[in-house]
Design brief:
With 367 residues, this protein is α/β, with parallel strands linked by helices. It is built from ten helices and 13 strands. The chain has one domain: Rossmann fold (3-Layer(aba) Sandwich), CATH 3.40.50. Helix 2 crosses helix 3.
Length: 367
C-alpha cells in the first residue's frame, strides 16, 4: 500500500463547471480559469475537450460512436482504439464512468482518448436516462442504474473486436468513481480499478456536501417521497439541481467544487447533453446508498487519485482505508489540484495519467 503526493506546476485558472442541488444544497463545483470555451458544434463528434479527435486517421487514435441495448434502453457510447490497433490481436481495455451530470464528450472522453494514446482500447458511455442514452423520466439518477451502466459497458466492450476480456480495467471519475467502486465489488471481470476525484453520491446527497446538511435529512427524504408519489399518480416530474446563475453568483458559491464545476459544465466545457438536474424522487435511492458499503469485496488492485486541494478529498480519504479486501492499493494526491481541475487542466491530467498508465500496464499485462 502506498500514499504519495506529486508536485506539479501550479497555475491560476478561471474555470467552468457543474452544480448539483439536493433540496437547498448545491452539489457540484465551480472554478476560476482563463480557459477558452470549447464549442461542441465545432467538433464532428461534439467533443468539448482540448486536443479532441476531429477525424479518424490511420496510425492514430480513432473514435467509434456505438450504441447498444441495456435492459431495453438505448445506450450511446464512444469507443477509442489506440494507434496500431489490430482487431485480430488482443488489446488491454478500460471502461470509463463519467461524473454526475456529465456526458461522454467531456472529461471521460479526454481520459479515454489519452489512455488510448497509451495503448488501451477504451469505452465511455452516457448513463441510462441521461445525455444521449434512452430512459424515462429523463435525468433519473439512481445508483443501481449507474452501476448497471458500468456492467453494461463491460458487456458491450467484451464483444468488440480486439478486446482482451482477461485484461479489462475500470476507471471512474467523480460520481463515476463512486459507482466504479460499487461495480467492482461484485463484477470480477475487472482486473484493476482506478478512481479520480471520487465522489460518494450517496453520502453527499444524504448528509450534504462536507456533511453540512445532517439536520435536514428527514425533511429532504419527505420531499423525495412526495415527489415519487406525485410521479406514481401521473403528476409532474419534480427535479432537483436546476439553476441558472450569473458569473457573479457563481463566484459567490461557497465551495470550489461548486464554483469551478459551474464554470466547467456551463461555460468552458458545456455540452447540451450535460445537465445538473436529476429527478427529486431519485433521492430516495441515493440517500440510502453509500459507495463504501461492502467495499472490502474489492479484491483487485486499486488506485485512487485526488487533488491535494480538492474540497472533495475527504471522500477519497474516507473510502481508501475501508478497502481492506486488497493489499495492492495506492492513494495518489496531485499536489495543488482541486476537484474540477483534475478534469481538464493539462498539468493535472498529465499527473493523473503518469499514475494511471503504469498502474493499468502492470495489472492488465498480457498473460
Amino acid at each position: 500500500m502506498a500514499i504519495e503526493i506529486i508536485d506539479t506546476r501550479r497555475r491560476d485558472f478561471l474555470g467552468a463547471g457543474a452544480l448539483v442541488i439536493s433540496g437547498a444544497m448545491l452539489g457540484v463545483s465551480a472554478m476560476t480559469t482563463t480557459a477558452a470555451a470549447a464549442d461542441y458544434k465545432q467538433n464532428p463528434f461534439t467533443l468539448v475537450y482540448d486536443g479532441a479527435i476531429i477525424r479518424n486517421e490511420p496510425g492514430k487514435v480513432n473514435i467509434h460512436p456505438v450504441n447498444y441495448k441495456l435492459n431495453g434502453l438505448d445506450i450511446v457510447a464512444n469507443v477509442y482504439t489506440p494507434p496500431g490497433y489490430d482487431p485480430a490481436k488482443k488489446h488491454p481495455t478500460i471502461v470509463l464512468a463519467h461524473p454526475n451530470g456529465g456526458v461522454k464528450e467531456q472529461t471521460t472522453g479526454l481520459y479515454a482518448q489519452r489512455l488510448a494514446e497509451r495503448g488501451f482500447i477504451t469505452i465511455t458511455a452516457d448513463a441510462a436516462y441521461q445525455g444521449g442514452s434512452g430512459g424515462e423520466p429523463r435525468n433519473t439518477d439512481k445508483p443501481q442504474f449507474r452501476i448497471e451502466d458500468i456492467h453494461g459497458m463491460a458487456d458491450f466492450i467484451s464483444r468488440f473486436p480486439g478486446v482482451d476480456t482477461a485484461r479489462l480495467g475500470l476507471f471512474g471519475i467523480c460520481g463515476g468513481g463512486g459507482y466504479s467502486l460499487a461495480a467492482a465489488k461484485t463484477d470480477k471481470r475487472f482486473k484493476a480499478v482506478a478512481t479520480l476525484s471520487m465522489f460518494n453520491s450517496g453520502r453527499v446527497r444524504r448528509n450534504g456536501f462536507q456533511d453540512s446538511q445532517m439536520e435536514t435529512i428527514q425533511q429532504r427524504l419527505q420531499q423525495a417521497s412526495a415527489a415519487r408519489a406525485q410521479e406514481a399518480a401521473g403528476g409532474e416530474i419534480l427535479y432537483s439541481g436546476d439553476a441558472n446563475l450569473t458569473d457573479a453568483q457563481i463566484d459567490a458559491l461557497p465551495f470550489d467544487l461548486y464554483r469551478q464545476g459551474y464554470h466547467y459544465y456551463w461555460r468552458t466545457h458545456a455540452h447540451p447533453g450535460s445537465t445538473f438536474r436529476y429527478t427529486t424522487s431519485s433521492l430516495m435511492d441515493l440517500m440510502r446508498w453509500d459507495a463504501t458499503g461492502e467495499i472490502a469485496l474489492i479484491d483487485v488492485p486499486l488506485l485512487m487519485i485526488a487533488g491535494s486541494e480538492a474540497d472533495t478529498l475527504y471522500l477519497t480519504e474516507d473510502a481508501f482505508p475501508k478497502a481492506t479486501g486488497t493489499r495492492d492499493k495506492e492513494l495518489f494526491k496531485i499536489e495543488g489540484a482541486k476537484h474540477i481541475e483534475t478534469y481538464w487542466v493539462p498539468e493535472y491530467v498529465e499527473a493523473a495519467l503518469s499514475r494511471l498508465k503504469p498502474f493499468f500496464d502492470r495489472h492488465l499485462a498480457s498473460t
